[in-house]
Write a structure and sequence with these properties.
By secondary structure, this protein is α+β, with helices and mostly antiparallel strands. It has 3 helices and 4 strands.
Length: 128
């Protein structure tokens, strides 16, 4: 009888733990890389973003969106390639897109480093 009680306790912990992990994934940030191939900074920003996400253990949080595959009326197309959005906001402060024209984005001083991306991600995720 004691063995059955122990197993019920273990199962209760497993179920409780599974419930906790599901609720924590609901609060994961939505991270999107908007891009299209051919823009000069796209490969570097993609590599740096992936490196930053890996260090933060958020690698599986990334969704990559090819801007030219979106409908011609989608305003995401108006963000320059590459752009990193966190919960729908540009990580580096560009205003919300109202255009539907696809263009390349150049960052002042060159593409952001993985360290710069990580710093901005941490601030965006914690609200600081």
């Amino acid at each position: 009888m004691e063995w059955a009680a122990v197993m019920m306790s273990v199962l209760g912990v497993i179920v409780l733990t599974a419930g906790c992990s599901e609720s924590s994934s609901d609060t994961s940030p939505r991270i999107e890389l908007l891009y299209f191939e051919g823009c000069p900074d796209t490969p570097t920003v993609r590599e740096n973003l992936i490196a930053a996400l890996d260090r933060m253990k958020l690698g599986s949080s990334l969704t990559q969106i090819d801007l030219v595959s979106l409908p011609k009326t989608d305003t995401l197309r108006g963000y320059g390639s590459p752009t990193i959005l966190v919960n729908g906001r540009d990580l580096f402060g560009a205003p919300v897109s109202t255009s539907t024209s696809v263009s390349c984005r150049l960052y002042p001083g060159g593409p952001p480093t993985s360290e710069q991306i990580e710093q901005k991600l941490r601030a965006a995720i914690t609200g600081g």
